[in-house]
Amino acid sequence: MAIYISAGHHKKDPGAVANGLKEADLTVKVRDRVIQHLMGFNGAEIVEGDKWRIIKDDDNETLAEYLKRIQPGDGSVVVEFHFDAAANPDASGTSAFYADGGDIQHLRSRQFATDMAKVTSNILGIRNRGAQSETQSHRGRLALVHEPGINCLVEVCFITNPYDLQKFNENFDKLCMGYANVIRHYDDIIK
Fold first, then answer.
1. CA-based end-to-end distance of the chain
2. How many folded domains does the chain comprise?
């Protein structure tokens, strides 16, 4: 069993750039702080052993390289962080994406996405755009959500919205602890 956490972008792919910030820098910050919180629970480690295993993406590898390297199984929780962007600077909110399907893994992934969007909205005080099928995403298909286990892709907030970013900065640690608690809950479900 393991927890797989990805920042969603790498050093050669900054993702969205707005308000003087790069999406890749923000997602790395979130990923690393969530991992710190998880390591505080039940002796989690980033190495194999008798404790939780936390496997993260490398800041120099592409998504394809990361997906080739990782080996999640049905007993895994997989999450990837992103920040949304829009031409309209008033676009606001959070959402989380999952893969459609009727089996227990897909139903749990949908609930995981629901809970990740809810904790984000509640802590940041921004609109909850909800859990959405990957078909509702800008890309239509998201590779990570098809990995085995319980998984979702979280759009934390809009990097293009100054208010969203303000709320993110003001509540950063609380948000990362909220994410860690949700991840731990789903890891406990599948143990």
1. 7
2. 1
**Residues found in the chain:** 191
Distance CA 115, CA 110 (A): 9
Q: Are 127 and 157 in contact (CB under 8 A)?
A: no
pLDDT in tens, 86-95: 999 999 999 9
Residue range(s) defining the domain that contains residue 24: 2-190
CA distances from 170 to 73, 80, 163, 181 (A): 36, 22, 11, 19
Supply the pTM of this predicted model: 0.91
CATH number, domain with residue 35: 3.40.630.40
CB distance 40 to 54 below 8 Å:
no
Q: Which DSSP category does 102 fall into?
A: S
The CA angle 120-64-188, to the nearest 5 degrees, is 45
Q: Which two tokens stand for residue 166?
A: 């303000």
Among the ranges given (14-18, 35-39, 132-136, 171-175), the one the predictor scored with the smallest mean pLDDT:
132-136
Cβ 77 vs Cβ 151: under 8 Å: yes
